[in-house]
Amino acid sequence: MLISVPATSANLGPGFDTLGVALDLRNVVRIKRSRFFSISIKGEGANNFKLKGNNLFISIFNEHYRKLTGKTDRFRFTFYNKIPLSRGLGSSSAVIVSAIAAAYAMAGVAISKEKILNLALTYEPHPDNITPAVMGGFTVSTVEDGKVYSLKKEMPSHLKAVVAVPNRPISTAHSRTRLPKRYPMADIVYNLSRSSLLTAAIFSERWDMLKIASKDRLHQDIRMKAMPELFELQKLALESGALMSTLSGSGSTFFSMSEEHHAQKLAEILKRRFNAFDVRVLDFDNKGLLIEE
Amino acid sequence: MLISVPATSANLGPGFDTLGVALDLRNVVRIKRSRFFSISIKGEGANNFKLKGNNLFISIFNEHYRKLTGKTDRFRFTFYNKIPLSRGLGSSSAVIVSAIAAAYAMAGVAISKEKILNLALTYEPHPDNITPAVMGGFTVSTVEDGKVYSLKKEMPSHLKAVVAVPNRPISTAHSRTRLPKRYPMADIVYNLSRSSLLTAAIFSERWDMLKIASKDRLHQDIRMKAMPELFELQKLALESGALMSTLSGSGSTFFSMSEEHHAQKLAEILKRRFNAFDVRVLDFDNKGLLIEE
User: Fold this and answer.
1) Phi, psi (rounded to 5 degrees) for A81
2) What is the rounded distance in angstroms from the CA atom of residue A79 to the CA atom of residue B284?
3) DSSP designation for B208
4) Are the beta carbons of B199 and A201 separated by less than 8 Å?
């Protein structure tokens, strides 16, 4: 059994805890029944023994598998991880989603993507990464009574993501506690109107609107202060032809969108100036969670 | 020359100062060159002599006409007003938009709808009524450096608006000052996510999503306290098949959306319970401002 889940970029500027998009960069886990429990991690996190010992995937998988079957069977888990850890690209959402999907698949119990998404919400209270991780594409999500309500728009192939991954993280928890407790209406309307306009722009493919619609006043600047070179990176990206350029989740990765013909050029410009960053051109993903026998 | 502008319903629940929709209920003004200045008002406001004496339309019209022509010519203005005054249906936005459009038309100077919208913003600082008034349809707007950026989705003819107009107003100014100065992030995300999801739902015609996506935590309840029967009206509308039911602008009108086949029934249910309200079934308008020779 092969389970794979894409990387995701959340918030997209104004869309705090709401907007997200899936990127064609997948974590894959292969699961086989086995006489002995075993786990091996290749790629991102391969050398992180702390991660291996206390694996979030295994604990979520076991919880659901036991609930579904009443048993504790043994499996051989092999992780092929491509999503950078703790860089705002949805690696923990990918773990949560793949663990739930894997438990149902190995238990032989059919489950809808909607149900997987709602189960994932019990581990990750914000839907902005888990929704595109499960559904793929660009997604808009809200939560009502512990359930995710979301809509999806497939991203066209002529657009690419240019992600700039710094060599160190900004902690989500630390970053979230730095945000103000309360905001004035002017800032609220600033983001609410832009998040709505960004949604309209993507659903109607009005890419010319992204630059104005992707501006934020609630969280980005506060978070970017922990890594001030991101201000310069954002400015450079927007001046160099990016359609939009936003902090990915709570960082530290910066996400830019570009027309296909310009993406490689944009990546080179960013790479030249920020040579300690891992700059990559990625396709968008429209499939989300995949389960293969 | 005939200028006409539709009624509008703004906010639509979570989309504070951002979302709006145009309704097929038009204020029309007929303008003719004349030896004497004259003004007559038919329909809404016909008996309001204070309004006639200090007419917002005339002052905006004169300001622009003088600027465009250097002259103060004389006209005969006849207003055929259908939009109820001070009930949250965009009557003042209609006046502003039609006055600007009329000045340019009578001066013989071509002007785009985008430019009319940006001029209207100098009289009405929130774009949520003036955008659908000019453009028609469902609109999402934001303001950046004194300019409106907006996107529009045409409303399908199988949907109708059911508006319930109380026999008294809630003052906008009064209502706006009652709102809290600052809001916590939980309430912000509540509205930001729903305004974005409501936008996605309308752009992708997922009408089943409107009920969840149209909920608000920033302004409606506070404003509705000035007219408590509106809580009961909203509940009744949603229980009686409305796809969504929201305070229109800052009130006092309540706006509900319904499938065509159910709209008359919904209106009757509301009318029976709230017999002092003027309950009407309206088409949506997709044309916005119209200028006819």
Assistant:
1) -100, 120
2) 53
3) G
4) no
Q: Is the pLDDT of residue A168 over 80?
A: yes
Task: In whole angstroms, give the CA distance from residue A163 to residue A97.
Answer: 22
* Token digits of residue B80: 């055929």
Reported ipTM exceeds the 0.90 cut: yes
- CA A195/CA A115 separation, integer angstroms: 26
The total of other beta-carbon atoms located within 10 Å of residue B232's CB is 12
In this complex, the residue of B143, B196, B215 whose CB is nearest that of residue A195 is: B196
Q: Is the peptide bond before A252 cis (omega within 30 degrees of 0)?
A: yes
Q: Residues of A with CB below 8 A from B188's CB? A: 16, 183, 188, 191-192, 218
- Could you give the CA distance from residue B277 to residue B88 in angstroms, rounded to a whole number? 14
Domain ranges within chain B, ordered by starting residue: 2-154+286-292, 159-282
Whether residue A203 and residue B203 make contact (CB cut-off 8 A), yes or no, is yes
CATH class of this structure's domain A2-154+286-292:
alpha beta
Task: Report d(CA A205, CA B49) in Å as an integer.
Answer: 49
- Pick A19's closest partner by Cβ from B141, B196, B218: B196
Q: How confident is the model over B176-195, as pLDDT tens digits?
A: 678 999 999 999 999 999 99
Determine how β-strand B138-144 pairs with β-strand B147-153: antiparallel
**Token pair recorded at residue B282:** 């309206």
> Using beta carbons and an 8 Å cutoff, which residues of B are at the interface with A?
14-19, 140-144, 149-151, 153, 179, 181-185, 188-201, 203-204, 206, 209, 212-213, 215, 218
Question: Which tens digit of pLDDT belongs to each residue from A210-227?
Answer: 999 999 999 999 999 999
- Asked if B242 and B268 count as a contact pair (C-beta separation under 8 A), the reply is no
Which of B153, B197, B208 would you mutate first to test chain A, the one with the most A CBs within 10 A?
B197
Question: Per CATH, the architecture of A159-282 is what?
Answer: 2-Layer Sandwich (3.30)
Which of A147, A179, A185 to mutate: most B Cβ within 10 Å? A185
Report the amino acid identity of residue A155. Answer: M
